[in-house]
Amino acid sequence: MSDFGRLFYASAVWFGVLAGCSPQAAPEPSTAMPAAIVNAMAEQEAAWNAGSIETFMSAGYWQDEELMFIGSRGITYGFAPVLNNYLNSYPDGASRGILTFENLEWVPLGNDHGLVVGKWSLDRDEPLDDLSGHYSLVWKRLPEGWRIIADHSS
Hints:
CATH architecture: Roll
Number of helices: 5
Distance between the termini: 76 Å
Structural class: alpha+beta
CATH topology: Nuclear Transport Factor 2, Chain: A
Shape: globular
CATH class: Alpha Beta
C-alpha cells in the first residue's frame, strides 16, 4: 500500500473512532409540566384548606436549610424558618381561608429544573379581606421527587 493509501486508511479509521465517541445530545426537556408537580401543588392546596400548614410545606418544599422564600418581608432561608413564617402569618382557619393556585406557565430549565409562574388566592370570610398575588416557583428533581427550592410570592 502506498503512503497515501496508508494515510487515507488511517484517517478513515480515526474518523470512525471519533464519530463513535462523539457526545450524544441531551434529550430536550418536556414543555409540559411534570405530573408530579401538578400533583404536589394539588396536595398543597388540599393540605392548606384542611388546616395543615405542615403538610402543605412537606408536600412541595425542599426540606433543607438552603430553601429560599422571597416575600414582602424579604428573603427567608431554610425549611423551618419558612414554615414558622407561615404558621405565624396564618395562625387559624379564618386567616388561612381557602387557597387556590392557578398555574399560568411552566418553563423547563433543563431536565431536572423548572419554573412555575402562577396566581394564588385566599378566599376568606368577612371581616377579613381576600388576598391574592403571584408566584414564581423554581422546582428541582431530587431523589425524593420534585421539590420547590425557591419561591418568590407577592
